[in-house]
Each structure stands twice: as C-alpha cells, then as structure tokens.
Amino acid sequence: MSKTLDNPKNQHSEICKPQDQSFRASATEYRGEVQPLEDGAIGQTLNHRWLETSVNNIIQEALELWPDLLITSGFNLNGVVLIDQAVKAGYRGKVVFVDTGYHFAETLALRDELQLIYSELDFVTLNANLPDNREYATNPDDCCFKRKIKPLKDYLAKQQPSALLSGRNRDGAETRHDLQPFEAGNPIKVNPLFNNSREELEAYAKKHGLKLNNLYERGYLSIGCAPCTRAVLPGEHVRAGRWPEREKTECGLWWGKLAL
Ligand code: SF4
What we know:
The chain is α/β, with parallel strands linked by helices and 260 residues long. It has a domain of 160 residues: Rossmann fold (3-Layer(aba) Sandwich), CATH 3.40.50. The protein is built from nine helices and six strands. It has a six-stranded mixed beta sheet with strand order 3-2-1-4-6-5, with helices on both faces. It is globular. The site of iron/sulfur cluster has 13 residues, from helix 8.
C-alpha cells in the first residue's frame, strides 16, 4: 500500500502516532546510538510503526525528533514533492544542493525558481569549484566523489545534522526496493516518500501546480549532470537515462561504501 500524500489525517495516523513513552524512548535511543542499531530491533520497530503513516506525518514526527534535520535535493520530481510536503509539515530549514559544475541550465533555473517559491526555506548551493577536466568520461566514480559526495560530506561534517530528509522512493532505483522510511546512520536518513510511486508523485505535483524541471516533460525522468543523463525512452526505467553507457547506476551518495 502506498502512502497518502494529501491527507495527513488519514485512517492510519492515530495508530502510528508515537503516543507512548516507550516509543519516544526508542526514538531517542535510535538517534543516539546509531552504529549498534544498523540492523537492530529499535530501528525495525520504528520503521514498522511508520510503514502505514502519511508522508506529512513522517515529516512532522521527524521534525519533532530531529529538529536540526536538513534536506538534500537535486530538484528532481521527488525532490520537489518533498520540499512542498516538508513546507506544509512546518519545515523551515535548509535545502542543500550540490552543484557539480555539470548540471543542466534547466536544473539551475529550477533551483532559482524554487528559491523564490519557497522563500521560507534556506537554499544552500555547494560547489567543489573544480576545473572542467571531463573526468566523467574516464572515471565517473571519481568525478562523482570529488564533485558531489565530498562537498556534501564536508558540509555535513561541519553542520552535524541529526537527520537528512531524502526524496528517494522504492520505485526510484533497483537499489531502493527495500527502502525504509527511516534508515540508521549518522546522520539518520528519513525517506517520507519511500512507498510512493512515480505516478503518485506526478499526480501530486500536477494537482498542486508544482514547478518541475522543464526537462521532465521531455523524457528526463531522472536528472543528474548533463554529460551523464539522457532522456528515457517509453518503457524504460526512470533511471535508464543516468550513465546510460555504463554499469554505474548511482552517484554514490546513497549507495555503496562512500554513501552518506
Ligand atoms: S554525474 Fe557525471 S558529471 Fe556529474 S559528478 Fe557524476 S560523473 Fe561527474
């Protein structure tokens, strides 16, 4: 069952509210002892309790538990829906974007537009400021590390947020099929859209008139850097256009030994 995007007071919300002290204690413990709980019972319990809640409730409770959380975003469909939902849930913090130097002009324009639309948020752009050495053509893993992973990791090391709000969903990549609403780690990852399909996210964006990347309607369903992204063909997976000529499927922020 996918989760409700528009109805925070859905039928599941009451049973999933952290009403009792034991849940609150568990959540606090989950936050404080990250390493031993990678596959532990407390994380499992937290995820189980949240499995049927709405996106809005997950964000609201994450804000209560980890008020210093921040959003990282590449402003794809999921990211824009997440920002909109987060604002509706009361989020007023940072939206961190890593400018690799190779983004489409449309992506940078969207960032600027979102900055105006969601003026209550603090948009932060990180940039490693590296010269154009075209390393994406010879060593894309290294390119992603230097231009994307390292700048974000360095920033997070300074900011030390307890949690990150991420727009990932299970449909979004083969590596995300088991994605849970909460992932242990330092910082903890909160994935409110984990169980929403692309169709649901599109419907939400359309209903609320959200501003999406102009490339989206041209078949760019997952948009990364320009040299490493093409439009997808009918019937292809949403991420088929990312590093299309390579085995690589992830930049490494969320998957692999260098993941956040
Ligand atoms: S997506 Fe491509 S251009 Fe962007 S950082 Fe990774 S390898 Fe480099």
